[in-house]
Design goal:
Elements (H helix, E strand, L loop, with lengths): L3 E12 L3 E4 H5 L6 H8 L3 E4 L6 H16 L8 E5 L10 H9 L5 E5 L5 H14 L5 E9 L17 E13 L7 E9 L7 E3 L12 E3 L1 H23 L8 E4 L4 H10 L11 H4 L6 H11 L8 E8 L3 E8 L1
Parallel strand pairs: 4-5, 4-6, 11-12
Antiparallel strand pairs: 1-7, 2-3, 6-7, 8-13, 9-10, 12-13
Helix pairs in contact: 3-4, 6-7
């Protein structure tokens, strides 16, 4: 095989706001119960950003921890891709605020908006820049303050989401060009704008000049999610020739416990290989995959050499999968 440039995962980090919002507290606000929420989603609690705590502040904390885990200083970074649907401001990009606060004076930084699929999209984007030699060290961040776009009177949505941030450091490294390489081995992305009305926010600067609130048709989203995610997983396995049985860990978007379990079953990955954090984090949109990764790396489950499969689906619809060797 001819040598290639690989995007190797050098470190990961995460940050969660201090405020914990339990199902019991929500039950005091809206017509719901702990049993109802757990039965339908698997969620028991979520984190909520403090007043004045912004998406960029969460992202900066996660990025600092990822850099520390990688043994790097911020001046090594020449690319920041920040996945978020809840930026600090309409513009400039929240990624540029992160860049400035970290003291980075080179390279480029931008936001990427693919809702819950954002982190997988961001990984694929950064990987392409690195493989083409246009960047050598990237911060890939998923950060959200979804609590700011929730309708707290709507029990079907406000119980599902939370705030947080996770980050990975990707570094360019030589590879052999086969599946024994460390780093990102394959990505596959999809979108289907026809499904817009099933998961969206009913506001925006062009349409309403307001932030708006999240709206979702939960049953329809569930119906599409399992098939779409299983399909994307099948595609990255097919392009690499790796069997599902050889995957060490599936790190899915933490949207709904039933979706996680049904997808794993559909692609024949054992439940004990699935990293699950939804019980404590809720759905943190673009932050959910890196938050789960950071936890599984931190507790020693994910180790060097492991094959790690990531997947996510979000509003749009957007969805995708990424296979990497740690």
């Amino acid at each position: 095989m001819t040598g290639v440039i690989r995007s190797v995962i050098a470190g990961c980090g995460s940050y969660l706001p201090e405020r914990v919002l339990t199902n019991q507290e929500l039950a005091a606000r809206v017509d719901t119960s702990d049993e109802w929420i757990v039965a339908r989603s698997g969620i028991r609690e979520r984190r909520i950003a403090a007043e004045g705590e912004t998406t960029s502040q969460l992202a900066i904390r996660a990025a600092e921890r990822a850099l520390k885990a990688a043994g790097l200083t911020a001046d090594a970074v020449d690319l920041i891709v920040l996945a978020t649907a809840t930026p600090d401001l309409t513009f400039p990009a929240t990624a540029t605020r992160v860049q400035a606060e970290l003291g980075i004076r080179k390279g480029f930084a931008f936001d990427l908006q693919a809702v819950c699929s954002g982190f997988v999209y961001a990984l694929a984007t950064a990987d392409n820049f690195i493989r083409l030699g246009q960047a050598s060290c990237a911060l890939v961040i998923g950060a959200e303050t979804f609590s700011r776009i929730l309708d707290w009177t709507d029990r079907t949505t406000c119980v599902l989401f939370g705030d947080g941030a996770g980050a990975l450091v990707l570094k360019a490294a030589p590879g052999r060009g086969d599946n024994s390489d460390r780093g990102i081995l394959a990505t596959k992305l999809h979108a289907d704008g026809r499904q817009h009305d099933l998961l969206y926010v009913d506001g925006g600067p062009s349409a309403t000049q307001t932030t708006g609130h999240l709206r979702m048709s939960g049953r329809e989203v569930f119906r599409h999610a399992v098939g779409n995610l299983a399909g994307a997983i099948g595609e990255v396995l097919a392009v690499t020739g790796i069997a599902a049985a050889d995957i060490d860990w599936l790190v899915p978007h933490q949207a709904n416990l039933r979706i996680l379990e049904a997808t794993a079953k559909r692609v024949d990955i054992a439940r004990e290989k699935v990293v699950v954090t939804i019980e404590r984090h809720g759905n943190t949109s673009a932050a959910s995959v890196p938050l789960a990764l950071a936890e599984a790396v931190g507790d020693g489950r994910i180790r060097p050499g492991h094959l790690v499969l990531m997947e996510a689906m979000g509003g749009g619809f957007t969805w995708g999968a990424c296979l990497a060797r740690w």
